[in-house]
């Protein structure tokens, strides 16, 4: 299947919608993401990267997510339950490489109040489906090697562990981050997709 870079669009599930991110989303993501629990796992370069205030967070988000030709950033919005309409997360399809049919699914964070719910599996179901339906044949997912919670969540998706990139990037505090790399390829996608759908039938929204 030939890869043609798709146009980002809103992807709708049962529990969430995944919307192309714009500057209008950023202030609403401040209360969801700018908390110590989110940055503790390595998001934003780790705890030292936590912005001090809303204005700093918006500026950091703008520089981290928007304006890159090889990234499709998305905001995650609840569409069911008592908090329907609330923005609770962010994720990205990035490092878009049509020549090799590769893409990375990352830059992901959620409000801690939705950890362990249907939000992450449905977001991943929607974004992985968008990638594979567009002809990409390999999706990588990465995490700070010390982030056991994120690494366990990636394995629960059905991704395969590929290895550790040592001293891959510098954290906000100046220390070196080792990055754990996982992938899902197109031949694995039907089984991964079925597993995510089964999880959505069993996992609560809240």
UniProtKB/TrEMBL annotation:
Stretches that traverse the bilayer: none
InterPro entries reported for this sequence: Acyl_CoA_acyltransferase, GNAT_dom
SUPFAM superfamilies: Acyl-CoA N-acyltransferases (Nat) (SSF55729)
Recorded coiled-coil stretches: none
Domain of life: Bacteria
Domain N-acetyltransferase stretches: 18-159
Signal peptide: none
Gene3D superfamilies for this protein: 3.40.630.30
Protein name: GNAT family protein
Species assigned in the record: Rhodoglobus aureus
Taxonomic placement: Bacteria, Bacillati, Actinomycetota, Actinomycetes, Micrococcales
